[in-house]
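Hello again, I could really use a second opinion on something today. I've been staring at a protein lately and its backbone has me curious. You're getting the sequence in one-letter code plus the fold written as tokens. I'd be grateful if you could look everything over and explain what you see. No rush at all, and the record is pasted right below:
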Amino acid sequence: QVQLMESGGGSVQAGGTLKLSCVVSGIDYLPNHMAWFRQGPGKEREGVATIVSGGLNTIYTDAVKGRFTISQDHGKNTMYLQMNMLKSEDTAMYYCAAGDSIQSWNTSSDYTYWGRGTQVTVSS
């Protein structure tokens, strides 16, 4: 059974940094399609970034381009999200997602596996 577990969230001031981790267990490889989603207070869940085919392709939502970096460590079966220059609007619960067949990277219903989330709070 595939399980995803996020960690690394916390409370920081605007301009600060955090690095989120998502450990994949139940299989000894990283799924082909993995992504980070977030859901802020009163907002819909949105795609933040995706990494495909072992890191050959990455996509970011416009709001985080140049500030966030998605990566993987296959030896640790872990995906990361390095978040720099954090803004108050980045405040949200961040979720790790994975799937085998994705039609649209930022459509949450396309993903099969989800973590429980880690909270990121940015104060201005």
